[in-house]
Amino acid sequence: MPLRPETDLLLAVDVQPDFMPGGALPVPEGDAVVPVINRLLGRFAHAVATQDWHPAAHASFASQHPGQRPFASVTLAYGAQTLWPDHCVQGTPGAELHPALDARRFELVLRKGFRAAIDSYSGFRENDRQTPTGLHAYLRERGFRRLFVAGLARGYCTDYTAEDAAELGYEVVLVEDACRGITPEATAAGTQRLRERGVRFLRSEALLAG
């Protein structure tokens, strides 16, 4: 697939150790996305990363809800919320971008999920679906029109980011082998949502070949 250097952007979502095997909220084979994303970074003139960045007492953590266990669902002020193990806590090694990721190539690292009362899957807005992160304003000001989404995890942060990007008017491509999902069921549901919104799917080989 030919790239448009000045209006295409690689968007790497939450490539952090806590989402890798051995991390606090591991995605199966999550570490496999790192070399693929690094190869893609060599092809794109522009790249941005998102970074989950939670305070220790974040409302999405099961530890903040006595009697609840991780992966249960509760209702918060903005609606249904899955409870997670404590993860990507600000200032911890698990919250950093993965050390093998070529972070020198990112022109912006946008932190999300730092508001204690609201979780944040999408790189564009919080889970209340109202509070913007500022990413759209940045991309619009820079003139980017097509986004290639990679990272972790399918069904959640990569998919919500791609879905919101399509809703905001970007042409969106999800790089399948540069992503991994928490569960097959969440990935399948995310794929259906994204296809309904016109998101394209391809593998990295289509980009790396030229």
From TrEMBL:
Instruction: Check the record and name the SUPFAM superfamilies matching this protein.
Output: Isochorismatase-like hydrolases
Gene Ontology terms describing biological process: pyridine nucleotide biosynthetic process
CDD domains recorded = nicotinamidase
In the record, what terms sit under GO molecular function?
metal ion binding; nicotinamidase activity
- EC main class here is hydrolase
What's the domain of life for this entry?
Bacteria
Keyword Lyase listed? The answer is no
What are the Isochorismatase-like domain coordinates in residue numbering? 9-205
Q: Which PANTHER family match?
A: LD05707P, PYRAZINAMIDASE/NICOTINAMIDASE
Q: Which family does it belong to?
A: Belongs to the isochorismatase family.
Supply the name of the protein: Nicotinamidase
Q: Which organism is it from?
A: Teichococcus coralli
Gene, per the UniProt record: pncA
